[in-house]
Amino acid sequence: MKAKRILGHAARILLLAAITALFVYPFWWMVVNSLNTAAQVVGTPTLLPVSWRWENYREIFRIQPFARHLLNSIEVALVGTAGNILLSALAGYGFARLRFPGRNLLFVLLLTALMMPIEVIIVPLFFQMLGWGINDSLIPLMLIPIFGAQGAFSTFMFRQFFVTVPLELEEAARLDGLGHLGIFARIMLPIATPVISSAAILAFLAAWNTYLEPLVFINSIEKYTLPLSLNNFNDAYGQPQWNLQMAATTVSVVPIMLVYLIFQEKVTDAMVNSGLKG
Q1: 257/50 Cα distance (integer angstroms)
Q2: What is the pTM of this model?
Q3: What string of pLDDT tens digits covers the 278 residues of the chain?
Q4: What span, in angstroms and rounded, lies between the C-alpha atoms of 137 and 46?
Q5: Is 237 helix (H, G, I), strand (E, B) or coil?
Q6: Ramachandran angles phi, psi of 240, nearest 5°
Q7: CA-based radius of gyration for the chain
Q8: Fewest CB within 10 A of the end CB: N or C in the chain?
């Protein structure tokens, strides 16, 4: 009986190891080929670099302003995420706690943004930003995570969480003389930390990985974000330099991995607390 239990435990470990390897291998392949030559990338796959070309990482900063592109992506992601959280939390609190005519209809209209692919509205958005005179800048890339589908999803998450908060907390706060903004800032936001963490990570990832919007709105190379920059490592004949693309991609993935590793438990808690109630 004990031997059977040990074999079962070993089988589960081997199965989990095999599944983990399937997910880890693409990332490992990327890192390995970031240290190879371009010819070795398209050769026989290896588990370790063939030439260990650390200079690939220096090269990506030399042939184009990759550091500037990295800072552009960080700026867009941070500003877009901060605006997303602030406005979505306010809107979610309003939909959850305030009573006003047409509240449910407005909430349904808000959720329709989740069903609207960016490809459908990108042309109207382009002309709108052109009319405002902010094309070829980072401003449109900051506004879209706030007022687009990601903002609607964050609002939904906050609303679902706030409707589960006992009304007694608000009543006690009103007895202490707090208004709606005071209740929101001093009561609701502190207890909504798991939702804030989850919404912030999802908004950050959406802003960090977006490709179509920078492709449409950005013309100047110094204003590129990372997704455009990664597609710009080509040789004199226009062919991709795969080893440099792998090196640049490895650098661009590191911030996302750090953010997720730090906040992964809060993401799980927020999904449970905000998505299944209301």
Answers
A1: 26
A2: 0.83
A3: 677 788 878 888 899 899 988 888 888 999 999 999 888 888 777 888 888 889 999 999 998 899 999 999 999 999 999 999 999 999 999 998 888 888 889 898 888 888 888 888 899 999 999 999 999 999 999 999 898 889 999 999 999 899 988 888 888 888 888 888 888 888 888 888 888 888 888 898 889 988 999 999 999 999 999 999 988 888 767 778 888 999 999 998 887 777 777 776 765 665 555 444 44
A4: 42
A5: coil
A6: -65, 140
A7: 23
A8: N
